[in-house]
Design a protein that fits this description.
There is one protein chain. Helices cover 53% and strands 10% of the residues. It is mainly alpha-helical and 490 residues long. The protein has a domain of 174 residues: Rossmann fold (3-Layer(aba) Sandwich). The radius of gyration is 34 Å and the shape is globular. The termini are far apart.
Length: 490
């Protein structure tokens, strides 16, 4: 079906190039299923790695969306995915501190653990158990096509297995809580598609268990937060240039210095055009997001300013917005035990749902020692019986295919070889020809009796040499052995 759609799109492209180009882009763009399945309540799951301090792009994109979902009284679960972070080498001391700093930052951004669930991934071991179960439903080619693996594999010399299979762990994070919606960026859409694929596979094999989750794409305004030094890229904490990223915990002087050195252009007025003026447009988007004022209003207020003075206005707005958050982060970090108690309480709450889901999964797939027989076991047994092969029919099909003039592609060649092997009436087991070599050379004692010469080897060690005999040589070998036996009897 997909091939027919692409062929039709190419036909339109041949006739109407301008219209077909957009159509082909729509066809080739990955789609995300929207059907969550029946009888699944709306649940939202989102995770974030503890890879250092949050930057302004994380806060304006992910965290603010979390706050809106929580305030809308949604059922939300927030997870600090520390097991994802060890797919690349980590310093143990730094990793532990990053976990606490990330938790303190999330709480400082007004995430209330009384209205949502906040926990650390490694404190709920059910994540890894479900990851293993899903790994048995996933294939290596399916994981090898994900672009995130290809990008990260270029950064390390020896690619760890965890970097290859971590999308399955991400799917387990989502499915363990039967989440129906996941806030993600566009770069994570293929991971959501993998989650949908695994959920459908499990449901088809063992019965309805998981919803088909939907992706909640981050708002476009937050996606406009770009690097201060290279506006063509998104703001990232992995950027080698520290001046490209504004961290939540940066001191006011540091924030002002980074914004003053932000890359713009030679035009002095302030306007918003991401295509032709990405640097200035990035500052306008940041100003709009931290103040809550529309972009049009920001441009109206900055009519009489050049880019130099406008940078100072943006810096003041960012410092003012982040100041109370920075104070709250320091407050939570100074009370480490209270922070641990909050995370432990969230882990206990999350594990109730995780244990319930995993108990259902074990029951359906037959794991454990429960006396209840899984319902799908009979169906699987019936399907698992090998089908009977009509050898005469297979011979006819192989003969027809051999006479055909159509080119044989690799997949067809594999199928043809399987049919040929099934059509063979019998297979000869590999036979071996033995020969005795004497090590070291031995003295031979020859005796002549009744015209027959015999040679007796000494007690030297014998070395047995084996050689596989092809089936076509088997008859000649048997005949030779028969002749030798006749001569010896004579």
């Amino acid at each position: 079906m997909k091939r027919l759609l692409l062929q039709s799109a190419k036909e339109i492209y041949r006739r109407q190039p301008a219209a077909s180009l957009s159509l082909m882009r729509v066809l080739e763009r990955p789609t995300v299923l929207e059907d969550t399945g029946p009888n699944f309540p709306r649940k939202i799951f989102s995770g974030i790695q503890p890879s250092g301090s949050l930057h302004l792009g994380n806060y304006l994109g992910a965290i603010q969306k979390w706050i809106r979902l929580q305030n809308a009284q949604e059922s939300v679960t927030f997870c600090i995915v520390d097991m994802h972070s060890i797919t690349v080498p980590q310093c143990p001391v730094a990793l532990r501190e990053n976990i606490f700093e990330m938790a303190a930052t999330i709480l400082a951004c007004d995430i209330n653990p009384d209205y949502s669930t906040l926990f650390v991934q490694s404190t709920v071991p059910e994540h890894m158990e479900l990851c293993w179960i899903l790994s048995c439903l996933c294939t290596m080619p399916r994981l090898g096509h994900l672009p995130q693996y290809k990008e990260k594999a270029k950064m390390v010399k020896d690619v760890p297995l965890g970097l290859y299979v971590y999308p399955v762990l991400q799917a387990a994070d989502i499915m363990l809580y039967k989440a129906t919606h996941v806030p993600v960026g566009e770069d994570q859409l293929q991971h959501i598609q993998l989650t949908q694929h695994l959920a459908k596979n499990f449901n088809n094999r063992y019965g309805p268990t998981f919803p088909i989750c939907q992706a909640m794409i981050e708002n476009q305004d937050a996606a406009r937060v770009r690097s201060l030094r290279n506006p063509s890229r998104k703001m990232s904490k992995s950027d080698l240039d520290s001046r490209a990223t504004i961290n939540i915990r940066d001191e006011p002087d540091v924030i002002v210095d980074k914004i003053k050195k932000a890359v713009t252009d030679f035009t002095s007025d302030v306007s918003y055009d991401p295509n032709t003026r990405p640097g200035v447009s990035n500052l306008v988007a940041i100003h709009s997001l931290v103040t809550g004022v529309s972009i049009d209003q920001v441009l109206e207020d900055a009519k009489c300013l050049d880019t130099g003075r406008y940078k100072m206005r943006v810096a003041e707005a960012v410092v003012e917005h982040l100041k109370p958050m920075r104070m709250k982060i320091d407050f939570h970090l100074s009370r480490r035990q209270e922070l641990i108690n909050v995370l432990q309480k969230g882990a206990d709450k999350a594990r109730e749902q995780a244990c319930e889901t995993l108990a259902e999964i074990r029951e359906k797939i037959g794991l454990g020692i429960s006396p209840v027989i899984p319902q799908s076991l009979t169906k699987l047994t019936e399907v698992a019986e090998p089908p009977t092969v009509d050898k005469h029919k297979v011979k006819e099909e192989v003969a027809i295919e051999e006479k055909s003039d159509m080119p044989v592609v690799p997949k067809q060649r594999v199928r043809l070889e399987k049919k040929r092997s099934a059509a063979s009436e019998y297979r000869l087991a590999p036979e071996f020809e033995t020969s005795v070599s004497l090590l070291p050379p031995v003295k031979k004692l020859s005796t002549v009796s009744a015209g027959v010469s015999t040679t007796t080897p000494s007690k030297a060690a014998h070395k047995l040499q084996l050689r596989m005999i092809p089936p076509e040589e088997t008859k000649s070998v048997i005949a030779t052995e028969s002749e030798v036996a006749v001569k010896s009897n004579n």
